[in-house]
Amino acid sequence: MSRSSAVLMRPTVPPPSPVLEVASADCLAGIATGTTTLAIWRRSAPAGLAEWLDGLRPAQLPEGQFVAAPGHATAPLQRLADAVALSASPERDWLIDDIAMLVDLFARIARCAAVNVRLEAIDHDACWRFHRDYVGLRLNTTYRGPGTQWLPPERAEAALRAQRRYRGPLNELPRFSVGLFKGVVQAGNDAIVHRSPPVARHRLTRLFLCLDAETRDD
Question: Which of 44, 77, 94, 165 is buried most, with the most CB atoms less than 10 Å from its CB?
Answer without folding.
Answer: 77
